Amino acid sequence: MKKFFTFSSIILISLFLMACAQQTKKPEDTVYLDELEKEKQLEQDQQSSNYKIEGDYAKKKKIIKQIEAEDRIEQKKLAEKQEAIEAKTAELEKEIEETIGGRTSEIAKTDDRIQELLSMNLTPEELSKRLSEETNLSKKEIEELVGSYKLQKMIATSQSQEELEKTLKQETELKEDEIKKIVEIRQQVVDNEKELRKETLKKIHDRLVRNRELNLETVFCSRATKMDQIVLSPVYYPFDVHIVGQDSSNQLLNDFELIAEELKNYPNMVLQLEGNCDYKGSNKYNKALGDRRWSGVLPLLTSLGYSSNRVRGISKGEECPTPKSGNDEDWRAENRRTDFVWVLK
How many domains, the chain? Predict the structure, then answer.
């Protein structure tokens, strides 16, 4: 009897489970492993859509490759013109060295590191500090170098011939004919720089219009192009600083004066200010520091009459560093900056 009861119970349980299995419905979004092994045939419209996507991608890839090659050629030509202007600027600096006194030039030639520091966009205070820390120059030699460096910066950022002439009369003991010669060379440099920026702005505008028509998007860490930097030089900062230094302020104002009139021809262009930081500090802190850096530049632009409606800003924090080169300190200094990137409205 006991065996019969056990056997009956097993049969009843089995029947109950079978009934439940029949009543259970497969959810619509359920996929079983054995179904994945089956190869599904795409519908005709799905196949056509896939072919179009693949074709569009291949076409876009080809176009991108082509325009990258064209852009490289354009940038090379502009770089050559910029080199010619820099050669003219070097001529001016050489003239200044010869008229003021050749001692500072002789000091610089004694050490490659000195020449590297002089070529950086440092403030006179930063230059003095780093010459003291990184070279064996005496205090007097550093003062001579920094004085000459400061004067060259003042000359390079003079807004007019009159201002340059006034600076030279106040800061040097040059004769009238020496001052006149330097002013003439400087004016040639200014004219060349204006022409270069005019040409570069047009190329930037044409490129932006072309990219929009081709629906080419920029990624977050796209760097300012060589063209952008020709038009407006980046602003650099000491460590943990967001206030624009006097030298950088003068350079920016000088650069902007050279393009102010030409910008009227491109009302659909907007200037994007991009604040960057080195890796020191937390990501959150550097994000905020990047915001302070780009926003600190805005008053300088509006003081020149540039509409704030044609400016927008973004902080890239420490997220988009330049490729590392040289020593760590130089690399970090290169990443403490605000870039000026042209975009369309």
Answer: 2
